[in-house]
Amino acid sequence: MATRTGGDVTGTVAEATGAAGSEDAASVVRTRGLTKKFGARTVLDGVDLDIERGEFVALLGRSGSGKSTLLRLLAGLDRDSTGDLHVDGTVSVAFQEPRLVPWKRVLDNVTLGLRGSDPVAAAERALAEVELTERRDRWPLTLSGGEAQRVSLARALVRNPDLLLLDEPFSALDALTRINVHRLVLDLWARHRPGVLLVTHDVDEALLLADRVLVLDGGRIAHQSTVGLPRPRAREDRELIELRSVLLARLGVTLEGTT
Ligand SMILES: Nc1ncnc2c1ncn2[C@@H]1O[C@H](COP(=O)(O)OP(=O)(O)OP(=O)(O)O)[C@@H](O)[C@H]1O
């Protein structure tokens, strides 16, 4: 078993408790030699990962490289691993599908499992932040995809997480909605400053949003690029274009013959 310390997971599916002082107060995540096997197959093979408080990290990797597996371990949704894993603070998770409870209205989805003195007021504030105050009494099935994803973000943020884990939360959205939700996530992140780990297939999305972009390959963090540009960022920025080709090459995509 991995030594899992810290991490009070609140999210859509998991609840775990624990508390421990961090070895490094600046880090919300610290893993060393984190290894995960499914049967005889080693999917994560000694992952060393640090995420600082308030840092936005994106994780790229080919399909099946183990991105979601790593996210699930950080979320405490899977505990069967070896190595060191330390998560310091509260964790919230948002997935590709919003995973709203269909028989609960929007507001009740956000307050679900929420403790504290006034969960309704907290949920109302969170819904206002994602600009969905008017939808508070709607049933999830009557929401658009973008609205449902914003409710899912409100539900994640209402808990004021130290670590926000995002597993491809934008991939099912149409291009325009995706741009708006990107803007919203950056806004919410700037206001709340959780550490973020965003799992994505989209190199541009990673470069537009993150401070650091990691590539998972061969069960390890095989590459990282730091993106020093201020936000909002433009896709056509020269530095971004260069980083994009480096990352695509690391992902095994070559752009020869394309413009
Ligand atoms: N519960 C499980 N039992 C057995 N194998 C699993 C299980 N979960 C994941 N795997 C395997 O582990 C590998 C990594 O899966 P994972 O979902 O983490 O990859 P990923 O990088 O997130 O992929 P994608 O980008 O396609 O979502 C895959 O080969 C997958 O089949």
Topology:
Blueprint: E1 3-5, E2 8-10, E3 15-16, E4 27-38, E5 41-52, E6 56-61, H1 67-75, E7 82-87, E8 90-94, H2 106-111, H3 119-129, H4 145-157, E9 163-167, H5 175-192, E10 195-199, H6 203-209, E11 212-217, E12 220-226, H7 238-250
The structure holds adenosine-5'-triphosphate (ATP).
Adenosine-5'-triphosphate binds at residues 38, 43, 61, 63-69.
Describe the structure.
The chain is of the alpha/beta class and 259 residues long. The chain contains seven helices and twelve strands. It has helices at residues 67-75, 106-111, 119-129, 145-157, 175-192, 203-209, 238-250, and strands at residues 3-5, 8-10, 15-16, 27-38, 41-52, 56-61, 82-87, 90-94, 163-167, 195-199, 212-217, 220-226. Strands 3-2-8-9-10-6-11-12 form an eight-stranded mixed sheet, with helices on both faces. A four-stranded mixed sheet has the order 1-7-4-5, with helices on one face. A hairpin with a 2-residue loop joins strand 4 and strand 5 (41-52). The longest helix is centred in the C-terminal third of the chain and has 18 residues, at 175-192. Bound molecules: adenosine-5'-triphosphate. Adenosine-5'-triphosphate is lined by residues 38, 43, 61, 63-69.
